[in-house]
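Progress narrative, Year 2. Work on ABC-type amino acid transporter, periplasmic binding protein from Paracoccus aminophilus JCM 7686 advanced from sequence curation to structure prediction during this period.
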Amino acid sequence: MLRLNLAFALALIAAPAVAAPLNIATDATFPPFESIDENGKLVGYDIELMEAICKAAALDCNIANAAWDGMIPGLLDGKYDALISQLTVTEKRRNVMAFSDIYEHPVFRFVAKKDAGLEISPEGLAGKTIAVQTGTPMDAYVTKYYPNSTIKRYDTGSAPYLELTGGRADVHISYQAQIIQAFLKSDSGKDFELVGPELTGKDAPEFGEGVAIAINKKNTELVEKINGGLAKLREDGTLEALNQKYFAQ
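Result:
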């Protein structure tokens, strides 16, 4: 009996440990990139992309909704292994987080009521109210370049649109694709339009280098695995297919 117990104990020690699923956070208030459908399921471009990366890299991933303002602190504290939520790569963020290869180069735009006659410039929006999601590249941009405007900040990506349609904000600034797909194509956005120039990281560093997956800086192995999965999606056409599915106009 002693020999059997010893053999059993040795077998348990020799058995490979089962790795816990990776905890990946997203702020599901930003369609068509990430949102929750009527069945309570996470859906969107980033969600499908992350699922495809995990499959290609043979990673066991659990993607969960999280509050925007708690995502980066959660990554730094080890609560999350990675973040996918249209996170732009900036020098400030690189100081505290690692990033995957960039998978998207977004364009940013202002949106306002049709025929509002607004000049999109620091002078033209002086005294006007700009609605923006807090802690985003758009927030950093208007804070720096529009000091004479009233800036209203919100915790979610959807709240600024309520301010805009309710007449409590004159303009909102966000990702052009998000404005078009989630707002202008909806009934609530029919009286609004894109205004001002297209903006990218080439116009202002606040907009960053592009969009990538954020990863804890200590986990270099995970960075390599995610990049490997992303590379496979580029090669087999999955990434391009997702772009066509969500953003072809």
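The chain has a mean pLDDT of 93. The first strand starts at residue 22 and ends at 26.
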